[in-house]
């Protein structure tokens, strides 16, 4: 199937996902006249969906406080952590340029199912749209776009589930070099250790993980240059798990 055929199929697919209510607040970590840094809660859309039941989102909430603000990047619905929001179009363009040129450093923390064998490594596997499995993405060497993610093990441990079963988990630091949709989630699945709580890529299949309350993925660091004063912003927000 060609890329154009895939895109055509994707445009015809209707997303039936309805987000459950998110009662957690957005934490504003920093703000000035040009940008806002926030801690996004898990279970909140970054951008409102077409379905009116998916109106609540990071953008919907923040535009009430900062009229004219726009998203520079997004986090998945289940992912918590750092996001930078532009307060006008010029700032958005300047920040988007940094993201597109890959001069922004993003660091995530996650809990993975099972025990990773290697202490660190690079996952280099192209990712493409899979219309047959929407909204899943897939590893695709033919039509996929290049995707690279680094990982470093922080600790390996066992967690006791509600049923008393000991579940092997690995706490890792993840550093995506590219920004593909679902990149970290699918890359972790690709190496046989899906992110705990990930309903799309096997994060609830390991015995004892079925009732995991959220996706255990948190955007913990964001490093970029302030578009006005040109100083480095080194934002950090500790993982809640």
Provide the helix percentage.
10-25%
Rounded to the nearest angstrom, the radius of gyration is 18 Å
Largest sheet: 10 strands, mixed
Number of domains: 1
Q: How many helical elements?
A: 4
CATH architecture descriptor: 2-Layer Sandwich
- Share of β-strand residues: 25-35%
Separation, N- and C-terminal Cα atoms: 41 Å
Fold-level CATH name = Pseudouridine synthase
CATH class division: Alpha Beta
**Strand runs, count:** 12
Task: Quickly give the structural class.
Answer: alpha+beta
Query: Quick check: average pLDDT?
Result: 93
Low-confidence parts: 1-13
Shape: globular
Series of secondary-structure elements, N-terminal to C-terminal: HEEHEEHEEEEEEHEE
Overview of the structural elements:
It is a single chain. The chain is of the alpha+beta class. The chain is built from 4 helices and 12 strands. It has one domain (27-236): 2-Layer Sandwich (Pseudouridine synthase). The radius of gyration is 18 Å and the shape is globular.
What are the SSEs and their pairings?
Elements: H1 3-12, E1 27-31, E2 35-40, H2 58-65, E3 70-71, E4 80-86, H3 89-100, E5 105-113, E6 120-124, E7 127-129, E8 137-139, E9 148-160, E10 166-176, H4 183-190, E11 217-225, E12 232-236
Parallel strand pairs: 4-11
Antiparallel strand pairs: 1-2, 2-4, 3-4, 5-10, 5-11, 6-9, 7-8, 9-10, 11-12
Protein name: Ribosomal large subunit pseudouridine synthase A
Pfam families: PseudoU_synth_2 (PF00849)
EC number: 4.2.1.70, 5.4.99.12
